[in-house]
């Protein structure tokens, strides 16, 4: 799993060994924790830049299409996203383009959702673009976005 989950588990084990009790109450995510998660998702995703685009693919290394890429990135962090871009848009929490944050999803299409990308900050996205260009970084407005959605708490 991810570093922060392992660190939290080790902290709990150490607290129990020292005789401290661990509350069963869920801890509300802090803004800093959400920002760190967003950064981790972006850092994870950008390492696949240059890998191939494969229609219907979900492999981050062997090839993925746009929705397969986004789905597989989020799966690494324990999120189960739908398989196709339109369903990813419909099941996400919609937000304004003015409120976009790293790790939000940007959706594109003409008359319907046909493409999805992961916002990485500074006006850029990473996406499985085409079989000619593969997974690449682009300006988020290379086409006009039709929706922005998130699967992360805000």
Structural class: alpha+beta
CATH topology: endopeptidase fold (from Nostoc punctiforme)
**What is the string of helix and strand elements?**
HHEEHHEEEEEE
Strand content: 15-25%
Report a brief summary of the structure.
The chain is α+β, with helices and mostly antiparallel strands and 154 residues long. The protein has helices spanning 3-17, 31-46, 66-75, 85-91, and strands at residues 58-59, 63-64, 93-95, 105-108, 115-121, 124-130, 134-139, 147-150.
How would you describe this protein?
It is a single chain. The protein is α+β, with helices and mostly antiparallel strands and 154 residues long. The protein starts with a helix and ends with a strand. The chain has a single domain, classed as endopeptidase fold (from Nostoc punctiforme) (Alpha-Beta Complex), CATH 3.90.1720. It is globular, with a radius of gyration of 17 Å. Residues 1-28 have low confidence and may be disordered. The strands form two sheets. It has a six-stranded antiparallel beta sheet with strand order 3-8-4-5-6-7. A two-stranded antiparallel sheet has the order 1-2. The protein has helices spanning 3-17, 31-46, 66-75, 85-91; strands spanning 58-59, 63-64, 93-95, 105-108, 115-121, 124-130, 134-139, 147-150. A hairpin with a 3-residue loop joins strand 6 and strand 7.
């Amino acid at each position: 799993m991810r570093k922060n989950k392992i660190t939290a588990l080790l902290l709990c084990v150490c607290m129990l060994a020292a005789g401290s009790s661990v509350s069963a109450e869920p801890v509300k995510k802090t803004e800093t924790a959400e920002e760190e998660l967003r950064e981790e998702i972006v850092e994870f995703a950008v390492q696949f830049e240059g890998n191939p685009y494969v229609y219907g693919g979900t492999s981050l290394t062997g090839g993925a299409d746009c929705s397969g890429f986004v789905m597989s990135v989020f799966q690494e962090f324990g999120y189960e996203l739908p398989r196709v871009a339109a369903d990813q848009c419909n099941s996400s929490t919609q937000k304004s383009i003015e409120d976009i944050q790293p790790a939000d999803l940007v959706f594109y299409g003409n008359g319907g959702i046909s493409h999805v990308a992961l916002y990485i900050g500074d006006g850029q996205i990473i996406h499985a673009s085409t079989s000619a260009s593969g997974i690449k970084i682009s300006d988020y407005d290379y086409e006009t976005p039709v929706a922005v959605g998130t699967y992360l708490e805000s």
